[in-house]
Amino acid sequence: MAIGAVMYFANAFQRRLSTALVWLGDAIAFLSRTAWPPVDLLIRIWIGERAIVLSLLVATDWAMAASMASGSYPIPVPGPWSTSLSSLYLLASISLIFGLATRVGAAALLALTVASHIHVAALDLNLFWMAALAFYVLLGADRLSLDRLLVYGLKSSPLPQISALITFLDVARPALTGIYLLVLRLALMLTLLLARRSHVDGHDDDNNADLGVVACDLRNATFWQCGHWAAGTHR
C-alpha cells in the first residue's frame, strides 16, 4: 500500500514536472520570436551609438578620445592613422545599427575592442562588448535588420556562391549558437576561478601576517621587533 502511494505521487510529480518544462520551453520559444528582435536592435543601437561617438572624437579631439578610453570607451592606442580609424568606427557602427553586413561590422568593432582592452585599459565594458560582438560575428543580426530583408532576395540570386553561403549560415546557426554559448560559459568559469584564487591568496597573506604576529609573541620578542616584522610583511 505504501509503495503504491509512493509510486502514485512520484508519477504525479513527474507528469507535473514534464508539463512545467514543456510550458517553460514554449514560453522561451515565444519570447525568442517576439521579445528578442527588439532587444537585439537595442543592443546594436547602443553599441553603434558609442562607436559613432568614438569616431567623432577620434576625428576631432584625439586627446579627449584617449582620455575617455581609459575610463569608459573601448578605443585602441593612438597613432598617425586616426583618420582611418575614425572612418572604420563610423562605417562599422552604421553597419551594426542597420544590420547591413552585420558580421563584417561586428568583426571590425570586435578587433578594435580587443586592441583597446590590451593596450589602453582592461575594462568590464570591453568584456561585454567582446561577448556581444562575438555573438554578432557568429550569428549576425536578427529579424529587425537589413540583412534579413535582403536575404530573401539573395537566396534566389543568379550567383550560386551567395545562395550557397546564405544556406550554409542558416544551417550552421544552431551549431554556431552552441559553440558561442560553450565558449561564453568557459570564459565565465575561468573568470570566477581566477577571482576566487585572487580572493584566497589575499586571505592567505592576511593569515600569514597573523601567524607571524603570534610567532613573535611566542618567541617573547619585543613589541618593537614584532611591529617591524608586521610592517615589513604588509609593505
Structure commentary:
- The protein has 235 residues and is mainly alpha-helical.
- The protein has nine helices and no strands.
- α5 (102-119) runs antiparallel to α6 (124-139) and α8 packs antiparallel against α9.
- The radius of gyration is 28 Å and the shape is flat.
- The chain starts with a helix and ends with a helix.
Please outline the helices and strands.
Elements (H helix, E strand, L loop, with lengths): L1 H33 L1 H25 L1 H8 L12 H17 L3 H18 L4 H16 L6 H10 L4 H59 L4 H12 L1
Helix pairs in contact: 2-3, 2-4, 4-5, 5-6, 6-8, 8-9
Oligomer: single chain
Which value, in Å, is the CA radius of gyration?
A: 28 Å
- Largest beta-sheet characterization: none
- According to DSSP, the number of beta strands is 0
Distance between the termini: 72 Å
**Helix amount:** over 70%
The ordered string of helix (H) and strand (E) elements is: HHHHHHHHH
| Alpha-beta content class | mainly alpha
Point out poorly predicted stretches. 209-235
Shape, principal axes of CA atoms = flat
Task: Work out the strand percent.
Answer: under 5%
Q: How many separate helices?
A: 9
Output mean pLDDT.
74
